[in-house]
């Protein structure tokens, strides 16, 4: 699920109580491509792991401004669909020029679950997902690698997307967030192969 296809690929997989997220490092603006340096489409903050595609402004707001609301006793899916999405919309609107659309979608890991927050603030959940221009290729890859370890599945999906979609390229980054953990673990940082 995604609002507006954008030039990138973010891939997520749930295994047990851990969520794995991976991304490419290409930034595309019109006919120009850049390799992302110093910033990332994949970051953790306040017990959440985010992978974003679309407007870079939305990524910066999520990384540097947004503070998720307290969950209290609410069901996690209801919290993400109602409280979290509303707070993110308010944070984006409060830190952006008037009438600017969010045009950013995220895969979000929290408490062992994987969610997609689309550019219209709708929230979806699934054991594996992909967003961005390479998402269809990545999803096909994920479907065919169900018997492999999660990080390997993500790397294969990202490589397939990079092979067949000009909006996606390596190096790649993969991180994990375990349920109850305040911060993510880096498995691959701007590389092309998983460490042995």
Q: What secondary-structure arrangement, pairings included, does this model have?
A:
Layout: E1 10-15, E2 18-24, E3 26-29, E4 32-35, E5 42-45, E6 48-54, H1 56-64, H2 76-94, E7 104-110, E8 113-117, E9 123-125, E10 128-131, H3 135-144, H4 150-164, E11 172-178, E12 185-191
Antiparallel strand pairs: 1-2, 1-10, 2-11, 3-4, 5-6, 6-7, 7-8, 8-9, 11-12
Helix pairs in contact: 3-4
Task: Report on the architecture of this protein.
- This protein has 196 residues and is an alpha+beta fold.
- Helices cover 27% and strands 33% of the residues.
- The chain contains four helices and twelve strands, in the order ββββββααββββααββ.
- The strands form three sheets. Strands 10-1-2-11-12 form a five-stranded antiparallel β-sheet, with helices on one face. A five-stranded antiparallel β-sheet has the order 5-6-7-8-9, with helices on one face. A two-stranded antiparallel sheet has the order 3-4.
